[in-house]
Give the backbone structure.
Amino acid sequence: MPIIPHPDFRRALTERLRYYHELGIYDFYRRETQGLESVETPVAADTGEPHPSFPLQPELREEMPARHSATVAAVAEENIFDVLTPKPEYGVADPKAALKLIREDLGDCTRCKLHKQGRKQIVFGVGNPRAELMFVGEGPGADEDAQGEPFVGRAGQLLNNMIKAMGLRREEVYIANVVKCRPPGNRTPERDECETCSPFLMRQIAVIRPKVVVALGAVAAKNLLAFNAPMAELRGRFYDFMPAGTRSSDPSWQGARLAVTYHPAFLLRDPRQKGEAWKDLQMVMKYLGLTVPSKRPEQL
Ligand code: SF4
């Protein structure tokens, strides 16, 4: 019978794994004699609580040092054992081949409830597998669901204009979403859906190794940064970003800078904010060494 670790133990283990990931340690081995699988948590018959005779190991209880970067996305508790499993793309140096392996691993995904809520197809991501710049949105809409490509509707047209205004072509960047299936009625993806799907996005980022990731809108920002704040507070600065629960095939890649700007769909609703979005893009352009026009291009 499979043994389900006690929640306290899982929580402590999650913290420990996160700590090791922040140190750049990804490979773990189980010791046969003291393996977790040989330890079953005794449970008190009356309360169902863990028996006091089963203390957590002191090293798992110790307090973890405070995180210096607030931008390391959380590993969902449910996914901690996924983290221990080597991913198919590990060790594959060619990002195009690595992305293909991630797509194959995703398969005809039924991992979250969005698979049965009317999606036509999975919208994986599109663009240059070696892109220096990556855009991450929230989830596919109707047009994207129909065409199997992110940002192809009206919002996609505006994103294309934003990319053009930066002096780039759509084919030069990579575009993906936090969730890969269309939420019904274009509702905001729910927390469990984001937590289930975003590890695939993290893996995409880890193989593409962009210099900059631009989070389009609050949902993308919240999921990438693993904290919640109003857009006004999130914008206007760079964050250090290392996709959690993953590792890059290039040990020299030290993560990306992450910037937050408005989602193009929001800019369509409130075009007065386009000037603010242009400031965000200018910041990214400067960092990437692109020529920054003195005036906001007309198409934006
Ligand atoms: S949204 Fe992501 S996790 Fe959910 S079914 Fe689609 S591909 Fe799978």
Summary: The CA atoms of residues 113 and 193 lie 7 Å apart. Residues 29-78 have pLDDT under 50 and may be disordered. The longest helix spans residues 191-208. The first strand starts at residue 126 and ends at 127.
